[in-house]
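SAMPLE LOG
Freezer: B-3
Tube label: C17
Construct: single chain, 359 aa
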Amino acid sequence: MDVLRPTLIRIEGRVYRKNVIQEQAYQHEEEDDFCAGPGDCADEPCDAFVVEETEKGFQCRVEVPSLLYKYIIGKKGETKKRLETETRTSISIPKLGVEGEIVITGQHRSGVISARTRIDVLLDSFRKKQPFTHFLSLALNQPTIQEKFLQFKEEVLEKCSKDHGVSSSLFQNPSKLHLTLGTLVLLNEQEIQKACDLLQQCKEDFVEDLLHFSQIAGGKPLTVEVVGVEYMNDDPAMTDVLYAKVHMKDGSDRLQVIADQLVERFVASGLMLKEWDRVKLHATVMNTLFRRDPSAEERNNTMTGKSSFKDRESFNGQNILKHFENFYFGEVQLDSVRLSQRFSSDASGYYTTSGQLMF
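STRUCTURE (predicted):
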């Protein structure tokens, strides 16, 4: 790590530097330990958290999903003990499986703030290692689109099945055709509700205004056309993801603006990690992940340190790109942004919806 360019971590709208520490590797993640010197976080702002003054000193509460308690406790309770010793605080954690608040108490305000900061950095690190549970999506599984997609699949297999790696197992489930705006790790009902509430707040703050302008102009709110295919990586002969391109029928960029602003708000809230400067609007139609697991979804997140492309068998997409460069999948009037649950299905075959922003 370059000490002049340390890793930066965003937590609740603030930016912290990650100090260089000596890490120990354990067999299981839940046994990973937390180690930091007594001088760490000494220069953190004291107004970063709500610290209450009590009769015995100071107190700070932090909501933590129960699935993450083990990372604060550590192997044989060592992480918790070290935190308490180095910050001269007492850390109360609910029983495993019981949702609640972690309470930090101490005689000195600075010690409570230091303990809270260390806990936040620790949790942020392990949260990034969790597989995403939900994602913001725009459904493209209307019957006309599904019909054209099945035609596309049939023609690809007819014309390109002899190309390396091309097989029926690569194709998306037509009931799950969608645009992904961003992925989220939501570990309890409180976090899911927070995401649902933020969607509604976004609707009031900017989505309704953007849609209103389009209606004044005499157009339908969000009508898009799905036309043509493109590949993700650099070499079309070694393709892992092939996607259909999407654009607004009226030529405007309203969908892009809505997508970018939604992601910006979710990133600012801490519910989503920032991946790109702009959302890449695309609908996956072929993915080598489906070869192993038909229920797998693509993951755009590149910040986990684990490549989703490991052990994939790529396919040669050159002929597909040549023959289907301008394939017309159809026209769709989008009606909502959904908070979709990964690895799930509703009655229509689409992902189960935990909440949605209706247009």
